[in-house]
Amino acid sequence: MKSSVDVGTAEREGASAPFWLRPTSYWMPAHFPISAWTTHGAFAAWLVDVLRPQRIVELGTHYGYSCFAFAEAAKRLGLATTVDALDSWEGDDHAGHYGQEVFDAVHAVVEADYPDRVRMIRGLFAQSRHLFDDASIDVLHIDGRHGYEDVVADYEEWRSVVRDGGVILFHDIAEHDNGFGVWRLWEEIAEPGRSFAFDHGHGLGVLAIGEIADPPLRELFEADDATASRIRADFERLGSGLARQSWLETVPADAERAWAEVRRRAVHEDELQARIDALTGSTSWRLTAPVRGIGRLVRRR
Asked: Among 52, 83, 220, 287, which one is least packed by beta carbons within 10 Å?
């Protein structure tokens, strides 16, 4: 179990801490696979703490960071939360295309740490919609294909699965180039008092569904401009800490790969030098020395 980003800060703030800085806001995820979602891990833990969801569904899991962040927070809080992770695990134009190894990597973490919490559902999102009843889940995380038509289709097909009082998350609302269109949908559906937008980490939109029952969520959605700016700044700061930790966790593996390459090349060079030494020390090399000397004279002329 990893320690929080700054447990001492959370403890010092105590009861005087603003509603968005709970102890869970400082928790460190247990896993840091490659992800564009890394800096939202603090908000994921906060949301699980506040909403206490029974069921989370995410459309788009890739290497699993957001899935693991939700599952780890629920595990540490002692909740019976389950996460349904839907993905083709084949990639797309934005995420890139990849092979079986990504699915296998996510599956290995699920089996080791979250076997009773995470269910991996492989295939197209539309093929799995029938598995979920309307108003049956607390959090829907939409992070699949990012074109405008794609995200609109996901939103329209899946929004009814979220119960009254739940939320829908939209990743990449701050991306405006390279065919991203989540921002367009967000501008169409975000309502004052019922939505909140983070700009960092490619952007994360939080949308309320139905009546907002949890006071901290209501405060989030109803925050005035000054408070909203503080919320964004604090979660961006916490997210930067997670990004640094993610980098630190990848350094040993990258360094080991680099040293392995150095050692491989060193061995290769040693073998090459040994072969050269063996050749130049051979009888045939000595016997052909006069011929090589004549060849050099001819080339000089």
From this structure: 287
Query: Domain containing 56 — which CATH number?
Result: 3.40.50.150
Q: 164 and 185 share a domain?
A: yes
Question: What is the number of structural domains in the chain?
Answer: 2
Could you give the CA distance from residue 274 to residue 179 in angstroms, rounded to a whole number?
55
φ, ψ of residue 222 in degrees (nearest 5):
-100, 10
Cα–Cα separations (whole angstroms), residue 145 to 170, 173, 228: 11, 13, 29
Residue 2 lies in a domain: no
What is the pTM for the complete model shown?
0.79
Closest C-alpha among 167, 140, 7 to residue 66: 140
Final residue belonging to a domain, choices 249, 266, 287: 249
Range of the domain at 218: 7-249
Output phi, psi for 89, to 5 deg.
Answer: 50, 45
The Cα 16–Cα 4 span in angstroms is 19
Q: Which residues contact 76 (CB under 8 A, 6 or more apart)?
A: 1, 24, 27
Q: Does 268 lie in the same domain as 143?
A: no
Q: Please, what are the averages of pLDDT over each run of 10 residues along the chain (301 residues)?
A: 42 69 96 94 98 98 97 98 96 73 96 98 96 98 94 98 98 94 97 97 97 95 98 98 89 57 62 60 55 41 40
